Amino acid sequence: xxxxxxxxWQAGESGLGAWLAIPNSWVAxxxxxxxxxxxxxxxxxGMIDYPDATELILAIHxxxxxxxxxxxxxxxxxxNRVLDAGALGIIVPLIESVADVEAAVQACRYPPAGRRSYGxxxxxxxxxxxxxxxxxxxxxxxxxxxxxxxxxxxxDLAAIPGVDALYVGPNDLSLSLGLPxxxxxxxxxxxxxRRIAKACTDAGIVAGIHANAELCAKHRATGYRMxxxxxxxxxxxxxxxxDLEKARSAR
Amino acid sequence: xxxxxxxxWQAGESGLGAWLAIPNSWVAxxxxxxxxxxxxxxxxxGMIDYPDATELILAIHxxxxxxxxxxxxxxxxxxNRVLDAGALGIIVPLIESVADVEAAVQACRYPPAGRRSYGxxxxxxxxxxxxxxxxxxxxxxxxxxxxxxxxxxxxDLAAIPGVDALYVGPNDLSLSLGLPxxxxxxxxxxxxxRRIAKACTDAGIVAGIHANAELCAKHRATGYRMxxxxxxxxxxxxxxxxDLEKARSAR
Amino acid sequence: xxxxxxxxWQAGESGLGAWLAIPNSWVAxxxxxxxxxxxxxxxxxGMIDYPDATELILAIHxxxxxxxxxxxxxxxxxxNRVLDAGALGIIVPLIESVADVEAAVQACRYPPAGRRSYGxxxxxxxxxxxxxxxxxxxxxxxxxxxxxxxxxxxxDLAAIPGVDALYVGPNDLSLSLGLPxxxxxxxxxxxxxRRIAKACTDAGIVAGIHANAELCAKHRATGYRMxxxxxxxxxxxxxxxxDLEKARSAR
Amino acid sequence: xxxxxxxxWQAGESGLGAWLAIPNSWVAxxxxxxxxxxxxxxxxxGMIDYPDATELILAIHxxxxxxxxxxxxxxxxxxNRVLDAGALGIIVPLIESVADVEAAVQACRYPPAGRRSYGxxxxxxxxxxxxxxxxxxxxxxxxxxxxxxxxxxxxDLAAIPGVDALYVGPNDLSLSLGLPxxxxxxxxxxxxxRRIAKACTDAGIVAGIHANAELCAKHRATGYRMxxxxxxxxxxxxxxxxDLEKARSAR
Amino acid sequence: xxxxxxxxWQAGESGLGAWLAIPNSWVAxxxxxxxxxxxxxxxxxGMIDYPDATELILAIHxxxxxxxxxxxxxxxxxxNRVLDAGALGIIVPLIESVADVEAAVQACRYPPAGRRSYGxxxxxxxxxxxxxxxxxxxxxxxxxxxxxxxxxxxxDLAAIPGVDALYVGPNDLSLSLGLPxxxxxxxxxxxxxRRIAKACTDAGIVAGIHANAELCAKHRATGYRMxxxxxxxxxxxxxxxxDLEKARSAR
Amino acid sequence: xxxxxxxxWQAGESGLGAWLAIPNSWVAxxxxxxxxxxxxxxxxxGMIDYPDATELILAIHxxxxxxxxxxxxxxxxxxNRVLDAGALGIIVPLIESVADVEAAVQACRYPPAGRRSYGxxxxxxxxxxxxxxxxxxxxxxxxxxxxxxxxxxxxDLAAIPGVDALYVGPNDLSLSLGLPxxxxxxxxxxxxxRRIAKACTDAGIVAGIHANAELCAKHRATGYRMxxxxxxxxxxxxxxxxDLEKARSAR
Lengths: 251, 251, 251, 251, 251, 251
Fold this sequence. Notes:
6 copies of one chain form a homohexamer. Chain A is an alpha/beta fold. Chain A has one domain (4-249): Phosphoenolpyruvate-binding domains (TIM Barrel, Alpha-Beta Barrel), CATH 3.20.20. Helix content of chain A is 48%, strand content 16%. Chain A is built from 13 helices and 8 strands. An 8-stranded parallel beta barrel of chain A has the order 1-2-3-4-5-6-7-8, surrounded by 9 helices. In chain A, strand 2 (38-42), helix 3 (50-62) and strand 3 (66-70) form a beta-alpha-beta unit. The longest helix of chain A is centred in the C-terminal third of the chain and has 18 residues, at 232-249. Chain A is globular.
């Protein structure tokens, strides 16, 4: 069980990702087979719970992509369960402080580096008996920057050992800054967006962001090396709506 | 519980439909809210089983569309279960003969018109205590024409009392005619395609066809008044693939 | 694994039963603990599929009652699966002929008496290694009389070896006789109802009927020794509706 | 997506509610169609988890009632997930302090008013693109008063901005006061019960209580304008038990 | 998507298989990773239904083994659904005649060779756009010989075009021959067992058998080249029972 | 609903247990029927979530063993839900302090002894109307000792009222002590292992440990009276692997 996303990052490359909100392993496999560097199972705002997540992680693995999970909250038990299931990265929402990030890192690392509990049911199945020895290195810990408090401390957060990337949530960060939800709001969002990229680059970690295909080039140019550019549920609705529009206009 | 699709047909209008292969009620509701005249839950080639189908039928209802179900085979028990759950139409695959169509019709109708068994758990919930009196009229019976045998007898099949529409399965019909799978193959498929439309029109029933947005105008011009123009799973994969292509080309 | 219902019948006694349409093991256990002689899992008109049925059968067992299953149709595979799961009786709907009943009996009996396939995953778990030796005796085969054809042949059907009881479906039998759905319709239903009871008594088997609490005494007096007197879903709705009525009237 | 319950409250009227402990969407729809002002999905003591809750919320919506959810604990992630699914109110158990209530309120409100994270998958589907603008007003936040600490601070809790109602849990409040479980225990419960109603009225918010049909009139007279008067699971068991009693007594 | 099992058979080699009765994808993946040539999902006597089967087929694929499915009965719809999900072989129980085998073969082959319906949702995902062209060759059709009627016609059945192997069900074959259930009963079972192997060899197809580790060598020596030697559920119970025995004896 | 495990402990006897990681009620029932004093449903590292846990608890009950649950974390809501479902003991992982143990005890006890919330849906079903009166005595609270902090305070933790046993997690305790994962590591693990046993014995509570069959005798001799000696998932894989090894070596 290698972590191809981490290898890319270590080689200075970027990764493009897809986002899953639908709890269906066919969808997970179909999306993953398209060639994304990572595919993220969203347990926070997606319609997915732990049992389904285990199936999706397997499907992403089977399709040759790197499975990432966004947990509903910064909870040791919740993070450990999806790591046991084979997730190779954890996105942690609603970070507010250094203590939050440290807790997130500890949840992703076995002692003595952290507090992860040992019982890697599927992870060890895939990785084999030496899973323990390499797990701390292979699992990516990715706190989100989406609150004003996190933004204010972003340089400190980026410097915390064990953090592999920081991931921008544009909607929540916008709300926290007094703006409406949006993928690419004007200032003060733009300033925050550049500050986070710089903080990551300066700290030698990866800057990540929740985005869409249109914004990808801008994000890459700004220094973001982890860009989520498509979500299953919205692609589905957009696609079906476009089909309906096309059919109607052809009448 | 009215059947808005049937009302449209009775008014001489056409209906556009969507197809569901993913067992998720959010998807069903999201698609149905787009404004399709019917949304079909596919238990034959979709990834959906009976328990999920009951949730999808509810979601389609909630979103104001007409729920149709394609059953895996021409089986009385299977047809009755989804009718009990509130399906307002049944698409029956792989019809071969007059006897097949008569069996399908009987499965959709209470005695003495048919052999449907009484126990409309959700259907009666929605329609109220007088469900029995109107069920035989409200439920659409839609056999598929997708084998050579069915094609050869299509005029007879269209004339069988209780048939509301015949539905073309282009892939299977193509295979049966010695062609590869395809949505709009050349002859002998084209001849069959026109013959089915004419048989339906002559018999005073609706011609239906499994299609896509591009083919909709052609089908409508040929006389098809029930055209399925989008499928959740393929719209999803097409959309995500297009996003990935766009993101990559913008690098 | 004894079949307490069969023992009661052998002792000349009657059995009262409950009916399950809701796929939830708490409901199954709660109902079964009330003291019914049998509890029937309805896979035909209930909202229950095979995986849920296995949980309900376990719950009924755990609560000390006898688990019966109504299958969606007279299908060897479907009958065998729920017998494997530990069902101690099978109610088979929509019987039309002697051949139908013989097929139902054969599906409930191991060779050479029948055609049941061997693989009693949970049944053997409960009954132990000698399950095979006693299974044919312990499993009750209960065809339904609910079509005119079955009624016309009821004396012949009752005499078929291996039949333990015949079970009246009042709604479907009414429809088949040209009446509306009903639990206790007037003639010709009443004559049919008495004829079936007599045919069973004459053949030395049990007469059963789908009913409610109000009709129980009448059915018992008529000779029915298997009377289903309550259904989970309707008891629930009646109870909640009565609560609402009470609360509103007290305003 | 209007919140009819809130509209009633704003008009000075009361709301009667039902309670769901069974994870089945048919039950949810059947109960909701009876005409309750709200129907609450209980994730704390009910047998329901998040995936089932999403189906029940949809069913309640489909049936025209207002979906409320009781979460297992005062957890931001858990509250956000059911709000995303379309819940229009949140009942939060085991409140102990002003800080607890403030956290509950913040979990129900988007920034800057609160800390709710943006990602309203089904809520936005139902409400449309302007969901964000009205969500904070439409979602009801309903902390429970069921501990001695909460009771002691009830006037302060009722005055916290963003609280729409306080909801009494008679069993837990009784235990906390040294009494056995009970729906309407004597003093000190009665004094607490009146104090809570008065605190709510004085603060201009709604007093709510978990009850049954018998107690409804008393609660209304005491000033409670949110009264839960029936629970699916207990109505089911009471109904089936009554049927069995009736059938046995008629022998 | 290659069929490694078929390739082995074509090379004259044998295949060892495992059997799954437990509906859990971790189990499927863990077993498949051990190195079996095929892993069979049992929908007849296993505790597995279609939705779970789709997850297990994916897990078997992910682990690098060849997924086979035993269907509950010789039903076109049921066979097509698991083939759509990516099964690379179908074991069909309770064959009685040439017509039965021909129906099984037709269910596994697209027209004009057979009657399989086109809609390979996951199969095409794995195999790519040319799935149709190679599917008929890649999917193994494996009827069971486990009734006296099938035994009597075994030479004819083995010669039917499209049959890849015949698979002995020792328990059911024993029952059909008047013997108790057993994995290796004495005559007349032994004679039947040898006759089936010879019929397959003579017809140039593979002889398969449901077995255990102890019997494997004997079966191989008799000419069986498809031997199932372990089942998840029984291995689990044997293992836990052995642990308990060991712990108790060490007291 | 008696707690046979507690009765054994009160009689000075030991209990042998099994561990469930697979979410399948057949597995739970099959394992429980082997005669274990307790069977533990693992929600932390097992592949089991709350809805499945309710089925497994029922299955363990049905098979006559005592159902225990390990929760994912020391969370009041999570502990209450499985107690409501009928668990008779709770194993709480990752204890660090006296405050942690006190919180665990309070989550297992109704007021005034603790903070458990009242709503025992299945527990009351099994135990009857007087469940409340005996619940606090019947439910076992079993904190885990698997961190260095807990080890350092083990004598204090063992003395906290309401603790019935302390349960050693050898893997996590080893990691916390700077050792690799292991069931019976050398010092400093051995010293810790003996210290915990002595602390429990001195405090008059039970010492428990996660183990295997080989280590059972040693643990018993050291004073451990709660020894888990088998896990479903590992027994399964070991058994199937042994079958494959046997079959291959016999070629």
